[in-house]
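Practice problem: predict the structure.
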Amino acid sequence: MPGIPAKQQRPDPEWVNWDSIGRGQAHWMRLIGPSFVALNAALLQGFTIARFSEVLVLAGYTQSAMATWCRFRNTAWAIMDWFRHPLDDPDSDARQSIYKVRCMHAFARQVAQESGLFRAEEGEVCAEN
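Answer:
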């Protein structure tokens, strides 16, 4: 993906319980309608936070109304992938989607840091995801 740095993925933690995660995914799928609406409403609410919006602008994710729509639409599809596909397979659509989102977040964090949006001297830091 252009502009998105490649990121080496860490191995799965020993404590991960894939059966529990699968049950959680199945539960979300049983409630997919309200869950999907709630998660997307929370995402939209984030756009009202000035700094969140500034990061999106700096990273180029809101260059136009169409770019913003595409970013929002792609996020919605990513959420669906996380619920519908196995997370215990590093090559699954769900895990590949998560890797892509982590890289996009890393890119946005790097751009925000380089722009001076966050000031270390005031205790503001961009934590790595």
